[in-house]
Amino acid sequence: MELFDVYPLYDITPVKGKGAFVYDKEGNKYLDLYGGHAVISIGHSHPAYVNSISKQVSELGFYSNSVKNPLQNKLADKLEKLSGIEDYSLFLCNSGAEANENALKVASFHTGKDRVIYFKNAFHGRTSGVVSVTDNEKIKAPFNQNHRATKIAFEDSEALENELKKGDVAAVIFEVIQGVGGLDEASSEFYQKTAELCEKYNSVLIADEVQSGYGRTGDFFAFQKHEIRPDIISVAKGMGNGFPIGGVLIDKAIEAKRGMLGTTFGGNHLACAAGIAVLEVIEKENLLKNAAELFEYVKQKASDIPQIKKIKGRGLMIGLEFDFEIAQLRKELLYKHQIFTGASANKKLLRILPPLNIKKEHFDELFKALKIVLN
Ligand SMILES: Cc1ncc(COP(=O)(O)O)c(C=O)c1O
Prior knowledge:
By secondary structure, the protein is α/β, with parallel strands linked by helices. The chain has 2 domains: 19-42 and 286-374, Aspartate Aminotransferase, domain 1 (Alpha-Beta Complex), CATH 3.90.1150.10; 48-284, Type I PLP-dependent aspartate aminotransferase-like (Major domain) (Aspartate Aminotransferase, domain 2, 3-Layer(aba) Sandwich), CATH 3.40.640. The protein is built from 11 helices and 14 strands. The strands form 3 sheets. The chain has a 7-stranded mixed sheet, with helices on both faces. A 4-stranded mixed sheet has the order 1-2-3-13. The protein has a 3-stranded antiparallel sheet with strand order 11-12-14, covered by helices on one side. Helix 5 (128-132) links the parallel strand 5 (115-119) and strand 6 (148-152). The N and C termini lie far apart (46 Å). The site of pyridoxal-5'-phosphate has 15 residues, from helix 4. Pyridoxal-5'-phosphate binds at residues 37, 95-97, 100, 123-125, 175, 179-180, 208, 210-211, 236. Belongs to the class-III pyridoxal-phosphate-dependent aminotransferase family. GO terms for molecular function: identical protein binding; pyridoxal phosphate binding; transaminase activity. Pfam families: Aminotran_3. Its cofactor is pyridoxal 5'-phosphate. This is Acetylornithine aminotransferase.
């Protein structure tokens, strides 16, 4: 049977990963500065992670959510402790789209409303509700068009209030730093005003931290810099370092009712073992600090390259904006210098999303390669 053709593929077949590197079937070594779309948070095949998953699968890989699973409580406690946020409860699922889909559902149940506000250039996933609040008409099927969703621009508090005033808005969903959209981030004033307006008009504020979360920006959650308290926070990607796991953190003021949410695989034993190992490594290796420090290093290195016009993002969620479209540059980095990088909706932006325990010397390799390609 042929595979359903959904992505253009690089002619590379990785078969092994170690730390910040992957190896293809011919034994070539690649520096992974993209982490398979921000998924690899603690490095490929981290020994603590491998041990934790291996041990768990040899004991119990899965049982359903109809029995007690203390690993879920352990994960929730560790997440609360490391993130420093309090009075949320956790629903575990399997992916970023699913986390956002459940977040929208909770918001709609809670408010009894059905419209959602989203932002220009947003990406929240590909399933039915969340693709309708994603700013890309090409990936919406007619079936997805039936949701009531309204797009506005970052920093436009007036438009936001005009929509919220109508009284039918269940939620405002936003990425604190946009990933796929090209690393834009609104001001603290705008996020604070958005939170205030959501409260005033009884709408739920959902921070999509699927890409920016779990330490990537140097804060545990990217919204923490803006001193807001979202009602719901969605997480996935780096949460499992490659094991599919997602989560929805829900303010305790939003009451859980039986039947609101459910899942077969979400929060299974193996996923929890992966998630706990990730948090333990983030804590033990002080990875938030590493992310923040390396951003300063990257800024300094990038200032040596005149073709880089702007550095966007924070921590290890980085966008290098060039004065030309970067498709060819990315290909040369990959095929001539064996370095994985990413793209975004902004065709001039090179997206860097490496494992959080990457080191300066890895960035030195990138900048050395950039100098060769650009000269
Ligand atoms: C901010 C954001 N939200 C949601 C998603 C969807 O996550 P998933 O692909 O795990 O469904 C993505 C994926 O790129 C994302 O970047």
